[in-house]
Specification:
Elements: H1 48-53, H2 61-68, H3 72-81
Helix pairs in contact: 2-3
Organism: Citrus sinensis
Binding site for Mn(2+): 22
Subcellular location: Secreted, Extracellular space, Apoplast
């Protein structure tokens, strides 16, 4: 449940290890093009609640609220639970 932040620039490549929950956010002002490929045939189990709300450092509340379409107050309560 660790938050890793990386800013990618044109031409950069980032590989997510098997089983990692991930998300993307365009922090720039222009459009972004991403090419994504999934290759795992054995997905396994990943608990989203622990990962999203219990990460260290915490994922920004505004981002989680937008992703889960929830009020910021509810997201804060969930983060405090984990």
């Amino acid at each position: 449940n660790r938050l890793i932040i990386m800013v990618l620039k044109k031409g950069d490549v980032f590989v997510f290890l098997v089983g990692l929950v991930h998300f993307k956010c365009n922090v720039g002002y222009g459009n972004v093009v991403a090419i994504v490929a999934f290759s795992s045939q054995n997905l396994g189990v990943v608990t989203i609640a622990n990962t999203a709300f219990g990460s260290n450092p915490a994922i920004v509340t505004d981002m989680l609220a937008k992703a889960f379409q929830a009020e910021k107050k509810i997201v804060k309560q969930l983060q405090n639970t984990f």
